[in-house]
Write a structure and sequence with these properties.
The chain is an alpha/beta fold. Helix content is about 45%, strand content about 15%. The chain has helices at about 20-25, 25-35, 40-45, 65-75, 90-100, 115-125, 150-180, 200-220, 240-245, 250-255, 265-275, and strands spanning about 55-60, 80-85, 105, 135, 180-185, 225-230, 290.
Length: about 300
């Protein structure tokens, strides 16, 4: 590399952790390293523990399958304890068996809002560690023309997504604020970002998440709790694959507007969640992160 005095080789002013980066850098970048202040040099390391979730306890709703299970797998791999919440006990039990000793479950219907506070206490008693990460992932879908959606159907979608998420946020926030540490994630959608026909109730719920994220972040980020959303694109699942197998034209339309040229996987969303909950994202709050292969900006 080119050092500040124009000679080739290692730069003795850099810490050992920075040497591999500097040695691989172009001359222009390498010379910039020598001008960094000492604090930046001391804190910029290649230590991947910055992305670790060791010592964290994540409560993940809808955690027995799909995106929720994908997020749980990644968080366990990053060192977190996880508690999966859902209605189907057999499915949750199988997921915990797969995840191993860092995982447990609580079979519960999150729409029973008057039981949410007790659920949070129960989860913490079982894990013997406070909830430091909340992932609001559970949801239901409704695909109907807007003029055919009944009040009861609209309310059910909003209750599952918005009311239940608010109740869980309210239940775990006091502990997070007391510890001056915590992370809340809401799983939004492409329907939060642009118009998708026949999903008015679902779009209303997922769009509400964005308002919740921004407002909550403005309230609690100064007290140590970060709030963010993830907006997944089209993610591979048995259900989606069955739908697209019978509608190849729709599959082509989706891929044509996705610059990455493929569907995502639950792990793509899971690793994004790990990042947002890790020390690496300590200055990230109040934002929505699309994990969509570029679909939200594709044409």
């Amino acid at each position: 590399m080119c050092t500040g005095n124009g000679t080739e080789g290692s730069n003795p002013s850099l810490s050992a952790s920075l040497q591999p980066i500097a040695q691989a850098a172009s001359p222009g970048i390498a010379s910039h390293f020598t001008q960094m202040d000492r604090f930046a040099l001391a804190t910029f390391t290649m230590d991947l523990s910055t992305f670790s979730l060791d010592g964290e306890h994540a409560l993940i709703t809808g955690g027995g399958s799909g995106l929720g299970l994908g997020i749980a797998r990644c968080m366990v791999a990053a060192g977190a304890q996880v508690t999966l919440v859902g209605r189907r006990e057999a499915q949750l039990r199988e997921a915990v068996r797969e995840l191993g000793k860092q995982a447990r479950f609580a079979a519960h219907d999150i729409t029973r809002l008057n039981e949410t506070a007790e659920l949070a206490k129960k989860v913490e008693r079982q894990a013997k560690i406070p909830v430091s990460i909340l992932v609001n992932n559970a949801g239901i879908h409704l695909k109907k023309p807007v003029e055919e959606i009944t009040d009861d159907e609209f309310e059910a979608v909003m209750r599952t997504h918005v009311f239940a998420a608010h109740a869980l946020n309210r239940a775990v926030l006091p502990g997070m604020l007391a510890r001056h540490s915590g992370s809340i994630i809401l799983i939004a959608s492409m329907a939060s970002l642009f118009g998708v026909p026949f999903v008015t109730a679902y779009s209303a719920a997922k769009s509400a998440y964005l308002g919740m994220v921004r407002t909550m972040a403005s309230e609690v980020s100064g007290r140590g709790v970060r709030v963010n959303a993830i907006a997944p694109g089209w993610i591979e699942s048995p259900k989606m694959r069955a739908i697209l197998t019978s509608d190849p034209a729709r599959e082509r339309r989706i891929l044509d507007r996705t610059p990455a040229g493929r569907f995502g996987s639950p792990a793509d969303v899971g690793w994004a969640a790990v990042y947002l909950c890790s020390p690496a994202a300590a200055f990230v709050t109040g934002t929505v992160l699309p994990v969509d292969g570029g679909a939200s900006i594709g044409f």
